[in-house]
UniProtKB/TrEMBL annotation:
It comes from the Bacteria. Its EC number is 1.14.14.18. Keywords: Heme, Iron, Metal-binding, Oxidoreductase. GO terms for molecular function: heme binding; heme oxygenase (decyclizing) activity; metal ion binding. GO terms for biological process: heme catabolic process; heme oxidation; response to oxidative stress. This is Heme oxygenase. Signal peptide: none annotated. The gene is hmuO.
Length: 229
């Protein structure tokens, strides 16, 4: 009996599952989503994210004329300007020049920039897949939790607003279909390369969350003695 061949979208999902779960369930993200961290922690996350999205969007500009980007490179997904607006709504003037990149963020940006240096559109599309499908999925949960626990207004959460795309689920389905159409034209080596780069992107996210977690550790429970060692 022949084993069904996975589509590119299915292959990326399966190959990144462990790294995805590790990032998603990091202590920092768990604490943030359960309302244990201050708004400063969310601001720090969005500031580092601005550096990542700025690099990603600049890289997409580089490949703007590549036909392989035609169906996947929807610039309505761009988030950098929305991040700047959200941070401004929180009283933070954010530009790439006045944000200090954490080491994990710098490494993440380097990975994205290397896709341009190496003329590696497939690697860039792997980063595109991780970032934007994540925003369209778990990102929606983050927005609701930040409204609930931090009482943030909608104007500080426009990063998570994709209403101009229409209904999110059909959009994600079309994205995966476009990804799978691309996959039909790729060699096994190219598919494996995309999977490896997507996994690397999740590892970058986990490293960033770990560094943010060191800055914003889990608060001690009431009556609990902080660990000073």
């Amino acid at each position: 009996m022949t084993t069904p061949t996975l589509t590119l979208a299915e292959s990326l999902k399966c190959s990144t599952q462990q790294a995805h779960n590790q990032a998603e369930h990091s202590t920092f993200m768990t604490d943030l989503l359960e309302g244990r961290l201050p708004v400063a922690a969310f601001i720090a996350l969005q500031q580092q994210s601005l550096l990542v999205y700025s690099a990603l969007e600049t890289a997409l500009d580089h490949f703007a004329d590549d036909p392989r980007l035609a169906t996947l490179g929807d610039r309505r997904l761009d988030r950098a300007s929305r991040l700047r607006d959200d941070l401004a709504a929180l009283g933070v003037r954010a530009t790439q020049a006045n944000i200090t990149a954490l080491p994990a963020t710098a490494a993440y940006v380097d990975s994205i920039n290397s896709c341009v240096t190496n003329n590696d559109l497939l690697g860039l599309l792997a980063h595109h897949y991780v970032r934007y499908l994540g925003d369209l999925s778990g990102g929606q949960i983050i927005a609701r939790r930040m409204m609930k626990y931090l009482a943030l207004p909608a104007e500080a959460l426009s990063f998570y607003d994709f209403s101009e795309l229409g209904k999110i689920k059909p959009y994600k389905d079309r994205y995966r279909e476009a990804l799978s159409d691309l996959g039909e034209r790729l060699s096994d080596a190219e598919t494996h390369h995309m999977a490896a780069e997507a996994t690397r992107a999740f590892h970058h996210n986990f490293a960033l969350f770990s560094e943010l977690g060191a800055q914003y550790p889990t608060p001690a429970a009431p009556g609990e003695t902080p660990d000073l060692h």
